[in-house]
């Protein structure tokens, strides 16, 4: 995609702080990180989000996320690691080239928690959701 900033990074047209690369995936440091070591893992080929990523590629990305998380943990010893992927603008996705965030969380890292915003549904509603959503 010509106007995609992450495609430009993959091609080497824009500088990035790359920490990992293989034939399918690249990982570089986020330019406006939440914390030291905040890394983005993305496919070299342009896909928009989890819905159009081929399953095999998503599985491979997950393997790399695990590998880099372990590496960040060994190097920087954070108190936790937050992993998230925003899919769609309404879900906070600014760059429409699929990517997974790996965010080390240290004692002084400010994180917005969604816990206070969570809802609770009645047993009837939960049963209805299970009926609608059950895959087995
Ligand atoms: P998202 O909101 O999930 O689409 O996240 C996009 C992320 O890309 C943000 O955290 C940005 O700071 C990061 N970002 C934007 N431009 C660059 C860039 N040129 N190099 C590295 N990270 C970038
Ligand atoms: Zn792209």
Structure, explained:
The structure is a single chain. The chain is an alpha+beta fold. The protein has a single domain (5-133), classed as HIT-like (HIT family, subunit A, 2-Layer Sandwich), CATH 3.30.428. Helices cover 29% and strands 18% of the residues. It has three helices and five strands. β1 and β2 (25-29) form a beta hairpin. The longest helix has 22 residues, at 55-76. It is globular and about 55 Å long. The model has no long low-confidence stretch (mean pLDDT 96). Zinc ion (ZN) binds next to α1. Residues 5, 14, 16, 28, 30-32, 40, 86, 92-95 line the site of adenosine monophosphate. GO terms for molecular function: catalytic activity. InterPro entries: HINT (IPR039384), Histidine_triad_HIT (IPR001310), HIT-like (IPR011146), HIT-like_sf (IPR036265). The active site is at 99 (tele-amp-histidine intermediate).
List the helices and strands and how they pair.
Layout: H1 5-11, E1 18-21, E2 25-29, E3 39-43, H2 55-76, E4 80-84, E5 100-105, H3 123-133
Antiparallel strand pairs: 1-2, 2-3, 3-5, 4-5
Adenosine monophosphate binds next to loops.
Instruction: Give the helix level as a range of percent.
Output: 25-40%
| Run of helices and strands | HEEEHEEH
The named CATH superfamily: HIT-like
| CA-based gyration radius | 17 Å
The portion of residues forming beta strands comes to 15-25%
The name of the CATH architecture is 2-Layer Sandwich
Total number of distinct structural domains: 1
Note the quaternary state here. single chain
Pairing-aware structural class of the strands and helices? Answer: alpha+beta
Shape type? globular
The DSSP helix count reads 3
Read across the widest sheet, the strand sequence of neighbours is 1-2-3-5-4
- What integer is the average pLDDT? 96
In the CATH scheme, what's the topology name? Answer: HIT family, subunit A
Please report the total strand number as a whole number. 5
The CATH class is Alpha Beta
**Can you tell me the residue ranges where pLDDT is under 50 for at least 5 consecutive residues?**
none
- Ligand types: adenosine monophosphate, zinc ion
Give a short account of the largest sheet: 5 strands, antiparallel
- N/C terminus separation: 38 Å
